[in-house]
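Here is the promised in-class demo. Please do not try to memorize the tokens; focus on the logic of going from shape to residues.
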């Protein structure tokens, strides 16, 4: 094991006062010339990954930032490091395990390795990014049962989420707006039942657990409109979202069943929005328009704004109808307070922002129409 080569390469490339290519080239040349240093180089990478975990990052977060800032080769490198480090890590929660499982599935094909110098350069670029990752707000990784009945209702809860996923998948796949609307409305109805049942089951009398937080990626391009959409979905489902623009994610705070719903619905609405935008854009091009970027940006901004309005109205109607249930009002109120307190404790200093770059009238009009077609209709009373 030759640590001196790795140390010299790191001093040149990772700890240099400037980030110029000369420093990277120097470090990569040292590593490329010494195959005996490969094992130590990998070991250091595993340490960088473990360091990211200590600073509050999770596997999906690290892969997302690498994908955002670097290239495919770096994503493959960090994925391999994360999976190699996992057996050495301490036990984590189910969401962490799911991220690792998804990463293993997506990383099943190993890309061909480049020459030693190119490979060493990519490794150093990755390590430099990992070394400089900031500390994030700590997320809960394990959750005790929220109530004694939790084990008995897990299967029915899983079936409910499976039905919701199936309905949203059909809404995404259909080419008929009316069918997509009906399927989305039915999914919303099930989501409401899912959330209300959980609230009743985990009420104060049952000693329910508190809210937690998930990070959900907000990817480029047009990430501001996507963040607004996620915020609207979160608010309609008793959660709060805080967007971290530089790092490309929002942290959504809420009770876990509601967080599952938020992630499902946000993903589905993004798919539906993209499908509708592609069709509308094709029609605009057929009419001779060529301003693709401004059209898309305005389309998604209008879609997010309109969906937010619809979801807020639907959520208010659902809450009004659900209050016929005994003792539901104090339960919902206490959960709302708990979510707000958790959010404010995690993010004591937040700011608001306005949508930028909304300048295309046709894009705004088409985005509003698409949101109307994805309208979440009033849910019937849940007995």
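The designed amino acids, position by position:
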């Amino acid at each position: 094991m030759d640590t001196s080569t790795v140390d010299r390469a790191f001093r040149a490339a990772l700890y240099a006062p400037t980030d110029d290519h000369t420093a990277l080239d120097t470090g990569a040349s040292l590593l490329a010339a010494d195959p005996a240093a490969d094992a130590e180089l990998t070991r250091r990478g595993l340490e960088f990954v473990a360091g990211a975990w200590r600073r509050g990052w999770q596997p999906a977060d690290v892969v997302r930032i690498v994908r955002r800032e670097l290239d495919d080769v770096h994503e493959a490198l960090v994925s391999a490091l994360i999976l190699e480090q996992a057996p050495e890590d301490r036990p984590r929660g189910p969401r962490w395990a799911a991220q690792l499982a998804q990463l293993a599935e997506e990383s099943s094909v190993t890309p061909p390795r480049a020459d030693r110098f190119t490979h060493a350069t990519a490794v150093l670029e990755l390590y430099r990014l990992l070394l400089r990752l900031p500390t994030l707000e700590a997320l809960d990784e394990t959750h005790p049962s929220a109530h004694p009945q939790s084990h008995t209702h897990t299967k029915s809860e899983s079936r409910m989420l499976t039905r919701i996923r199936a309905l949203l998948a059909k809404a995404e796949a259909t080419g008929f707006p009316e069918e997509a609307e009906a399927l989305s409305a039915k999914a919303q109805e099930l989501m409401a039942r899912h959330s209300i049942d959980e609230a009743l089951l985990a009420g104060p009398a049952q000693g329910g657990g508190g809210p937690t937080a998930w990070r959900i990626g907000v990817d480029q391009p047009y990430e501001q409109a996507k963040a607004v959409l996620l915020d609207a979905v979160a608010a309609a489902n008793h959660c709060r979202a805080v967007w971290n623009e530089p790092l490309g994610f929002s942290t959504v705070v809420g009770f876990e069943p509601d967080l599952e719903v938020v992630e499902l619905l946000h993903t589905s609405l993004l798919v539906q929005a993209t499908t509708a935008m592609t069709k509308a854009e094709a029609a605009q091009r057929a009419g001779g328009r060529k301003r693709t970027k401004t059209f898309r940006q305005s389309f998604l901004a209008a879609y997010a704004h309109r969906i937010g309005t619809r979801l807020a109205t639907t959520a208010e109607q659902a809450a009004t109808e659900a209050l016929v249930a005994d003792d539901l009002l104090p339960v919902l109120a206490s959960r709302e307070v708990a979510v707000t307190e958790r959010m404010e404790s995690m993010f004591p200093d937040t700011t608001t922002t306005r949508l930028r770059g909304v300048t295309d009238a046709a894009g705004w009009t088409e985005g509003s129409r698409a949101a109307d077609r994805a309208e979440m209709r009033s849910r019937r009373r849940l007995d």
